[in-house]
């Protein structure tokens, strides 16, 4: 889908014609999910390769701890600007702009399409108006934030990790990674516009390009720069993702370069609401979710050297299956937003409930496997080079604790998106959504306070395991608050039904974990054999134990729902 469209005439679709995504039917949604899943898998593998390279070259010690403090910068920028606050605000905004009839300009060559005559969208086009009203200000803000981070790196390290052995190394790494603010900020903006236009490939490839750059620069420069080479790779990758997503945005959404200046665009003409009252709750929610990383870094810096690294490696392993599960709800956000905008709360409710069930089932299966086979997973992935058997034992224990919070992590991601999609709804649902705009931020804040309190109590006695347990408690509470906050905001999901379904899936998880643990123990000391047998037993045990949960019926209902969601709505004036 592009911003430009042919003027009304023989080639224009008639009034009431279905959208491009509707004409593709369920195949369009399936293709979007397939493309996103493929790139997500590749990105996860590359991220794993990056972590394996980091463990092999630098192990788990004072140097890796210093880098991981700097790694907090892209770790914060990615969920805030690519996966969290910015897309949660911008996807509904772009969707609202696309729902406004554009004023068509003259027939002149389109700068993104070559010499073929196209209708140039004027400054009165809602999507162009949205871009012109927001992108320049966002760019200046990101550049200022990047410069401030460069200058304030020493103070940030002193506040965030006061117990580091080598704070100067952390400062230099932060200055190298600070460009991630600019890179992820612009790339996240472009990716949000692409997703709203049902263009998923470039947005899905973002992390693939980013991780390739980190791995390549680390391999080439680690002998010269040491662990600073990884930070330099972050800088290179952050710049590359701007080009990757920016070119696609220019081609499919809105030309970024124009041959003549047009008048100043007004945000109010776009149908989008991007004021401070809209953006601030989203940003606070995302920062609150990311705050647990800062808590871990703060308390971990006071523990023995290598603690932060053990926490990081365990978290990276645990988050790999979680990313695939959260992707389910990410792909369906535009469908959910349109259903709410049309006032079809029943369809939106069914979509959310089905996404929650499927994402939870995938996550619980992975959780069972990781709890049962954590030592074998860490041994196979990391125990080589500078990563010792003691590091393996410590990371395995932390991984088992972290895995207990995977369900909460997925439910937070799946439940937060409906909260922010409600902003694009209409009527009574929109009024309720505005009244509860701070519900996700409050939930994240309460979870963060609980995480901080539990960390302060458990870290001195239990070390890294105590910090991981605090994370589990905080994120689980946040998930409960988000789920129970949806019905009052106008999305009547059936909490009792969801809870019963999750309870049955958790029972299946216990059976799966027991089967995987027994199989891994019987396989002997060889990690690959143990993982193959343990994984097979986990899948078989979960499949058998989940039959009474009705998961199969849910998947069938989801397939029918996808077909219904892609059917054209009632006739409306044609929009490009």
From TrEMBL:
InterPro entries per the UniProt record, alphabetical:
Lipid_II_flippase_MurJ/MviN, MurJ
- Residues that span the membrane, as ranges: 28-49, 169-192, 204-221, 227-249, 362-382, 402-422, 443-462, 468-486, 498-519, 531-551
> What's the protein called, per UniProt?
Virulence factor MviN
Gene Ontology cellular component annotations, sorted alphabetically: plasma membrane
Q: Name one GO molecular function term.
A: lipid-linked peptidoglycan transporter activity
- Name the PANTHER family for this protein: LIPID II FLIPPASE MURJ (PTHR47019:SF1)
The principal localisation class reads membrane
